[in-house]
Amino acid sequence: MPITFTVVERANPQKRDDPPKYYANIIGDGKTTLDDLARYASSISTVSKADVLAVLESTFEKIAEDVADGKIVYVGDYFTLQAGGSSTGKDKAEQVTEADIKSLRTIFRPGKQIKNALKTARIQKKKGK
Questions:
Q1: For 74-82, which contacts have Cβ atoms below 8 Å and span 24 or more sequence positions?
Q2: Are strands 3-10 and 123-125 parallel, antiparallel or unpaired?
Q3: What is the rounded distance in angstroms from the CA atom of residue 31 to the CA atom of residue 71?
Q4: By the 8 A CB rule, do 40 and 34 touch?
Q5: Tens digit of pLDDT per residue, the chain (129 long)?
Q6: CB within 8 A of 123, min separation 6: which ones?
Q7: pTM, whole model, 2 decimals?
């Protein structure tokens, strides 16, 4: 199945009087759940879906805990995850405290496996609208 896109019109926010331009907008089409992953893994191995699901659940739970502990989590050649955030600026370094952190987010970095998969992915315009 290819990656699909729609076309969106966007104005230039810095030059509102310029005519808008049209851009490709990659859209999610379908989903894969943890259950789907477990079912797939069990279909290509001798391990039951329940066992695969237990391993995946415990693995992702550990990943979440380690990211929350400030670790960079390397998941083989697939991806890395780590915490990131934004904070308010202060005039002096000693004025910065944990209270200045406005938000936390997850930083996702694709690894070789995902990058290579995207290099060979097919792309097509979404039919319809």
A1: 75/111, 76/111, 76/113, 77/111, 77/112, 77/113, 78/110, 78/111, 78/113, 78/114, 79/108, 79/109, 79/110, 79/111, 79/114, 80/108, 80/109, 80/111, 81/106, 81/107, 81/108, 81/109, 82/106, 82/107
A2: parallel
A3: 28
A4: no
A5: 888 999 999 998 899 899 999 989 998 888 899 999 999 999 999 999 999 999 999 999 999 999 999 999 999 999 999 999 999 999 999 999 999 999 999 999 999 999 999 999 999 999 875
A6: 2, 3, 4, 5
A7: 0.76
d(CA 41, CA 51): 10
Place of tokens 């290579």: 116
Q: What is the 3-state secondary structure (H, E, C) of 55-107?
A: HHHHHHHHHHHHHHCCCCEEECCCEEEEEEEEECCCCCHHHCCHHHEEEEEEE
Query: Which residues are bridge partners to 88 per DSSP?
Result: none
In whole angstroms, give the CA distance from residue 77 to residue 79.
Answer: 6
Contact call for residues 49 and 58 (beta carbons, < 8 A): no
